[in-house]
Amino acid sequence: MNQTTDKKNDGIQKRKVIVVTDGDLMAKKAVETAAKRIGGRCISRSAGNPTPISGHSITKLVKQAPHDPVVVMVDDKGHTGEGKGEKAIREIANAPDIEILGVIAVASNTEGVNGIKVDCSVTKNGNLIDSIVDKHGDKQDGNIIKGDTVDVLDGMKVPLVVGVGDPGKMDGKDCSEKGAPIITKAMKEIIKRSSQS
Length: 197
What we know:
This protein has 197 residues and is of the alpha/beta class. The chain has helices spanning 25-37, 55-64, 84-94, 181-196; strands spanning 4-5, 13-20, 41-42, 70-73, 98-106, 116-117, 120-122, 128-129, 132-133, 139-140, 144-145, 161-164. The protein has one domain. Strands 1, 2, 3, 4, 5, 7, 8 and 12 form an eight-stranded mixed sheet that branches. Helix 1 crosses helix 4 and helix 2 packs across helix 3 (84-94). The protein is globular and about 40 Å long. The protein starts with a strand and ends with a helix.
């Protein structure tokens, strides 16, 4: 996927971004592996628990990446309000030269959050489903996924939200040594649907 000029936005060249709402060490390894597998670029400096740099800094790094799609990670480290990860998402989404293709919303056991509606989810067994998953990647009822870095998405114009369990984990089924197949499938689904819209 190459950079394209969005004529609706006064000719500004928009970079295509996929956001993953997790950034711990296991997630970082899995996301880096998956980004490579889809032919994208991963902003490794966006990884951290919580997110170590601002959304503005992430945006600058995205624009330096040689090609799209560019994958970034955001993480609130369990913070139930708007933490560093959610603030970073907001800043990235508000950048005029960034287009978020979709968000991979990671399930967690965080209490006191509203959650966000998903368009689909990928289970730990690699199945694409219409409902949500838990942090282990097991299918659950409903379509509202709960995690510490997803509430900010409510009200944002994000074209696609894909739910997953804990990247790099999910009972060992998403580890980077196995090619991070679950997070890879979630990224591929975002690219597939964005090309159809």
